[in-house]
Automatic annotation (TrEMBL):
InterPro entries: Peptidase_S8/S53_dom (IPR000209), Peptidase_S8/S53_dom_sf (IPR036852), Peptidase_S8_His-AS (IPR022398), Peptidase_S8_Ser-AS (IPR023828), Peptidase_S8_subtilisin-like (IPR050131), Peptidase_S8_subtilisin-rel (IPR015500), S8pro/Inhibitor_I9 (IPR010259), S8pro/Inhibitor_I9_sf (IPR037045)
The species this protein was found in: Cecembia rubra
Protein name: Peptidase inhibitor I9
Similarity comment text for this entry: Belongs to the peptidase S8 family.
Domain of life assignment: Bacteria
Entry annotation: catalytic residues: 180 (charge relay system), 215 (charge relay system), 373 (charge relay system)
Pfam families: Inhibitor_I9, Peptidase_S8
Amino acid sequence: MLKKFYKFIAKPAFAFGLAVAVITVSCQENQEVAKMDLEDQFIRYQNGDVIPGSFIVVLNPDGITFRKDGSYEGNQAALRTVANSLLAKYRISEDRLGYVYGTVLDGFSVKLSSAEFDALKNDPAVKFIENDRIISIAQGNRPGGGGGGSGSTGQETPWGITRVGGFVNYTGNNLAWVLDTGIELTHPDLNVSTSDGFTAFTTGRDANFNDLNGHGTHVAGTIAAINNNIGVVGVAAGAPVVPVKVLDARGSGSYSGVIAGVNWVGSKGKSGDVANMSLGGPVSQALDDAVLAASNKGIKFVLAAGNSSTNANNSSPARVNGENIWTISAMNSSDVFASFSNFGNPPVDYCAPGVAIRSTWLSGGYNSISGTSMAAPHAAGVLLLGNAKTSGFVLNDPDGNPDPIISR
């Protein structure tokens, strides 16, 4: 297992680590809760709160005067120069500039006054500007969600892994990128690769790749927990999982930070890699465009449909469609559509297990939680192994068009 820590940190002028539980495509902890109660324990997401004075600016490609050299570092530096030049035109200070996106978008995040926004939006170099918003998950107990996990007395195969066709010991060369709260770097049941890790945070305890929440570690375990004599086993057992930390210890972040993570994966990932995004919220054209652009490199993006019992076409990035993009709804162990899951064909491609899912957790432990956040990594593991198959259709799909159940 590759556990050595190579630190890469994004360099925005501002980062948001807010405890406001606003947008969730997630889960809630299950300690001694009866299995039948778990569907009522899920976390619903709401409209994302606007971050006052913060915006995401997307530029017209025709207005970009630099040639991309293909490297992340080169593209980022060039886009930063372009952004600062545009801001200087309106006497906007460089210290207002946040993230820059040189690979999957030609754009940046920035703090603006109302007058500066009005001036910038009318510049011919600007394609569109949208509000930055808070994106977050909520935990069932104390912030960080460290409670409720348990240790292991031997390996078990969670029901969801069995339902999607069982596990395979992974022998490939591709990576599983987990855009989430990070991954616990020292978990004995995970093969964490940090050489390509990323964090959207520059200060405080989240300025590293380590998971202080539990959500990202849980997702990683479903994809790729190691086939050994402890804990659980993932679909693509032992595959390297890469932490792309876009949510903090409280499960909070920003759309601009999530796009920064997608930009990183789009630059560093390769064809055949899988990127799991168990997060989402209200429509964001910038986020959608970033995911689509990254997927065009052959990176397989797996998106949670969302937990608001509504049409997934109203959520980003769940609504994005593309050749290398899959949106996943959730079901229980009886193949019944989870009451909390979003629906709609398109964009939903497959249904997967998402209720009472046991996987890796903090402090080397294990936990059972529910959500489309848990369904997506089942699909990510299947797609990391190759092409997906199906095994029947989910029951009681509210849109009347039953989603096929993914299987390897």
